[in-house]
Amino acid sequence: MSRNTQPSALLVLEDGRVFRGRSYGAEGETFGEAVFSTGMTGYQETLTDPSYHRQVVVQTAPHIGNTGMNDEDPESRRIWVAGYVVRDPARLPSNWRSRRSLDDALRADGVVGISGVDTRALTRHLRERGAMRVGISSTETDPNALLERVRATPRMEGAELAAEVTATEPYVVPAIGTKRYTVAAVDLGIKSMTPHRLAERGVEVHVLPATTALEDVLALGPDGVFMSNGPGDPETADHPVEVLRGVLARGIPFFGICFGNQVFGRALGLGTYKLRYGHRGINQPVQDLTTGKVEVTAHNHGFAVAWPTGSDDSPDGGPDDAADTSATGRSRRHARAAIETEFGPARVTHVCLNDDVVEGLSLSDREGRLRAFSVQYHPEAAAGPHDAAYLFDRFVGLMAGAGRTDSTGTTTHPEGAA
Ligand SMILES: NC(=O)CC[C@H](N)C(=O)O
């Protein structure tokens, strides 16, 4: 069916702004947090990333759906976005891997979307006013009636969503080639490329439900523990934080991505806060403060870890503080990048060069050897640039240095090393 024959649809933001367009994907009504993603490619990976659960994604790239949907690129078993907003959808997909149109895929998963929207105007609105609740409907014609329902939906702040996306049962992603290490990966909304990147490096990955108890993580005798990306407010992640604190107290190597970075921050005693409109796209510049190197990276986050508070007059490391990108603001923050925690010395290792948001953390032992680290962005690069792939090697290196050498288990972790 050509889009011109699609029924009309309505998009209403919680502050009352209205956009009109045509129904795209499933017909009906949906609600969520309106966020925009600037990726020019990778819509299939975006749509199937569980971190987008309960979010309505606005694509700033005007043409969406051109390469259809294939069987190779999904990051999970379904499309997770709560709704989809595009400007000019492809009428006919064209790609050798394409199996179905994006429109059909959205419909098959019951995902309500809208096309023909001025996504530039909508994005500028979200940049100015911040991410906010939104409704899309192909059944409602009265914007005020839809607005009322938008305002009755829950906000992203305080939302505990990992349980809604995590695996219900543990499963194993086998190592590719010779097995060298075992990793326990806590699934807070994991993307399938992440265990794959580890498997490529000889890691057998045991993906565990978000509710897994510390004893069950330890029972696997893992060489390392991983915590994944995922939806919702990191302030609600008390259980993963407790599990991670147990892992860190035992000196087991740890690597975290995105939500995993926020959980790590909390385990180290740092706070988290909501960004005004977040980082979503595949060309965000991040600087490694330890080497000075800049990498171009894939992002999808609406919350961030607060800068450690120092003895200066800075309020809380939260939004106002991070927004001060003057040279003074930067040097004040960087001066307190290093902190002392109950597990040892930790530091902010990475920052986003657009707005100075914390993008990575590390924990060392007293001799300065790395023990655990995390990044707020997406080194698995699905989609996105591969600049940050070295982080998977770093995790493997960490496990190699921590005691156990390989699956023959000739040496073991120093128990309780801290
Ligand atoms: N991709 C993620 O892991 C996102 C983490 C968290 N839900 C955020 O929005 O910041």
TrEMBL record:
SMART domains: CPSase_sm_chain. Residues 313-323 have a biased composition (Acidic residues). Residues 308-335 are annotated as: Disordered. Residues 7-137 form the Carbamoyl-phosphate synthase small subunit N-terminal domain. It comes from the Bacteria. Its EC number is 6.3.5.5. Signal peptide: none annotated. PROSITE patterns: GATASE_TYPE_1. The active site is at C258 (nucleophile), H378, E380. L-glutamine binds at S51, G230, G232, F259, Q262, N300, G302, F303. Residues 1-181 are annotated as: CPSase. Keywords: Amino-acid biosynthesis, Arginine biosynthesis, ATP-binding, Glutamine amidotransferase, Ligase, Nucleotide-binding, Pyrimidine biosynthesis. Belongs to the CarA family. Composed of two chains; the small (or glutamine) chain promotes the hydrolysis of glutamine to ammonia, which is used by the large (or ammonia) chain to synthesize carbamoyl phosphate. Tetramer of heterodimers (alpha,beta)4. Small subunit of the glutamine-dependent carbamoyl phosphate synthetase (CPSase). CPSase catalyzes the formation of carbamoyl phosphate from the ammonia moiety of glutamine, carbonate, and phosphate donated by ATP, constituting the first step of 2 biosynthetic pathways, one leading to arginine and/or urea and the other to pyrimidine nucleotides. The small subunit (glutamine amidotransferase) binds and cleaves glutamine to supply the large subunit with the substrate ammonia. This is Carbamoyl phosphate synthase small chain.
